[in-house]
């Protein structure tokens, strides 16, 4: 069957992340990436406007829509962060949460997230990481309420 990413012309950068095209694990990861777009359509989404002062490259976006990730999408991000560093994991999760860039939906199955990410300035990449954290983390009050609810059983 071969690697669908190669068949669909995935840029070499993403194919390298996914591994050997004949590797069944890499092929499974590619299929997972192609399913991300379908799953993300039903996830809660949030729009972020990139401040002009942070758009230092011509390729930096003006507006991003990011979505919450499912547990399966988070696991896929962990697989893609194969070097195991915390920063790599954060980057992969943030990339997967990008739903659209300047109104164009990102198709991660065709390495869209990797393509955009590589062309953005460090400031925009940092903002995307911050957006991911804002969407996926609880507020201090929520943490406190949860921890205060603890009772012995």
Topology, element by element:
Elements: H1 4-7, H2 12-18, H3 24-40, E1 45-49, E2 63-67, H4 71-80, H5 86-97, E3 98-101, E4 104-105, H6 112-119, H7 122-136, H8 140-148
Antiparallel strand pairs: 1-2, 2-3, 3-4
Helix pairs in contact: 3-4, 4-5, 5-7
Structural class designation: alpha+beta
Number of domains: 1
The percent of residues in helical segments reads 40-55%
Number of helices: 8
Q: Label the overall shape.
A: globular
Order of helices and strands: HHHEEHHEEHHH
Q: Supply Rg.
A: 17 Å
Percent of residues in beta strands? 5-15%
What is the residue-averaged pLDDT?
79
Instruction: List how many beta strands DSSP finds.
Output: 4
- Termini separation (Å)? 53 Å
Main β-sheet: number of strands, strand sense, barrel status?
4 strands, antiparallel
As residue ranges, the low-confidence spans are 1-25
Numbering strands along the chain, what is their spatial order in the largest sheet? 1-2-3-4
């Amino acid at each position: 069957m071969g690697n669908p990413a190669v068949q669909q012309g995935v840029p070499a950068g993403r194919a390298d992340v996914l591994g050997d095209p004949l590797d069944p694990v890499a092929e499974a990861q590619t299929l997972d990436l192609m399913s991300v777009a379908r799953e993300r359509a039903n996830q809660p989404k949030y729009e972020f406007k990139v401040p002009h002062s942070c758009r230092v490259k011509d390729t930096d976006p003006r507006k991003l829509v990011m979505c919450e990730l499912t547990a399966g999408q988070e696991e896929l991000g962990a697989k893609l962060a194969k070097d195991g560093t915390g920063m790599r994991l954060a980057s992969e999760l943030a990339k997967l949460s990008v739903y659209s860039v300047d109104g164009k939906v990102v198709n991660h199955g065709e390495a869209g997230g990797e393509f955009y990410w590589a062309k953005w300035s460090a400031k925009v990449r940092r903002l995307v990481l911050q957006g991911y954290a804002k969407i996926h983390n609880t507020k201090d009050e929520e943490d406190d309420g949860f921890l205060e609810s603890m009772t012995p059983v």
